[in-house]
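Hey, can you fold this one?
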Amino acid sequence: MHSYDALSEDERARRYEQLARKALSVYALENAELRFLGPGTNVVFRVQTDDGRWALRICHPGRDRNALMRELLWLVAVNRDTELSVPEPVIMRSGELLRSVSMPGISGFHPCMLFRWVRGRPADELTPDHLRGVGRLTASLHRHAASFRWPEELTITSSPLAYLTEALSAERVRGHVRGEDVDTLLEAASAIHRTARSLGDGRDVAGVIHGDLEQGNLLYHQGDARAIDFERIHWNHYAYDLAVTLGELSSRKDFEQLEDAYLEGYASVRPLPCDPDEHLPAFETMHTLTRVLSWLQAERLQHGEGDGFIRAAVAKVRRWLDEV
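Sure. Predicted structure:
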């Protein structure tokens, strides 16, 4: 049998389709029409029948089951408690939200979960109205998060900043990043911690967040903004979600208009969780550090593909430190 890594993309897709049909058998959807949506962190299939459409996510065998359950339980609660259009996990007849599936030709047990399809399309050209809708969406998620709690056994005990500092200090990081650059990243983590501490951690400013509200994870339908891909949810300051969305747009010529519309939309649902000018640059830097760690943990880094990104990220972090 050929090594999986040596297989063609078509053959990989064929094997994952077999795995997908096995996972879908508990929903009586194993004969549905499947469309492979491409590999990534996860493998995703669109599942189509005459009765509806769903998305099946096949996760890497190494994914933390507790992290997946945190995502699924919040999505169940958001669908139950709000009118927001977000992916709704489909519960199996057994009452479970995910199952781990294996089969010959694909190594390991892959956690699989099924979501109802979220209607909508990415924006061809972003306008202030789009950002106003994203602001309302983000604020609505945060309003729900303020009263949501995971079961005690799933609660995260360490803060995102503690994780960042620990991860950036690891030997693996120093094996890929120059010592002086690691020191820069660690200095930034300390500065971010000071900013976060100044905000406190009350329910009005911190809770469960989406964690990746970039435009690639936003759809628009009949004037509404809708979020997908909640796999990066975690406990953090709400300012992080704002920083991710606005930071992605900061190089646009119409950024001020987009930012004003976004903040206006957010404030129409709940008060802003921070002072945008004072606090968001720190959380945008936190997002940069998180992306650096994602690159350092990726297999492609072994081939030097992340070197340019990491150099640019370190330079960006250093510029921010010079301003604070």
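The chain has a mean pLDDT of 91. Let me know if you want another pass with a different chain boundary.
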